[in-house]
Amino acid sequence: MKNSTAIAIGGFDGMHIGHQQLFKEMGENGTIVVIETGYANLTPKKERENFSNFSILYLNLENIRHLDGEGFVSLLQSKFPKLKKIVVGYDFHFGKHRKYSFDDLKILFSGEVKVVDEVTLKGDSVHSHKIRAKIQIGDIKGANNFLGHNYTIRGHHITGQGIGKKELVATINIETEGFLVPKEGVYVSLTRIDDEEHYHPSVSFIGHRVTTDGSFAIESHILDGEVVCDTKASISFISFIRDNKKFDSIQELKQAIKKDINIALNKLKILAL
Question: Among 19, 94, 107, 131, which is 20 to 30 Å from 47 by CA?
């Protein structure tokens, strides 16, 4: 990082296609500077590192929010002594009470300041808060289009209710922390087990098990064979299949799961073409 000549500054929750435009402006010798607000839930904490090859420096907002413009630029120059270029978005503000904008940055910093215009997709501006809204209503396709990658949550493996393997289908159950959990329902997904490099085709359920014990679950059924999960799993969401629903019997639930599996298999087959 000390040798970086360019940096891109922002919150960068989601590492979406708008953020990627900023990263492209840095050139090869760049570092991403994340201002960590504590509100990131699309790519919480160091999850951002899964979506960029650039090194990342994290600055906690609480530790720098008191700085004036000169103090902020001095901090950046102390972290990056060879700094020649700063890349920010059109809505970037910094300093105490967010008083300073990119216009002030151009005055305070002697090098180049590149301001990236608003990024749009099919006429709609790309923002993290819009991605969150899409995920919360189950519009996974829309969220993924804005992200430029599949929305993914990660968690620790936990023991399920035990009904699945005996009476329904075997699932891998996870407990996640810090991630925005999608709307309750059933999804076409890809699931990565432990430290495997590849993802398995899967059907995932999020929600309260209203037909059985009523408990909340995040669980994934692997479609290409039974696998054993030791400690952790990642679920990447492809598309929404249906809402969570209470069935009158285990048999009805079983039939619905069969339909979900067929839908997922067809969807994933199409994606593979």
Answer: 94
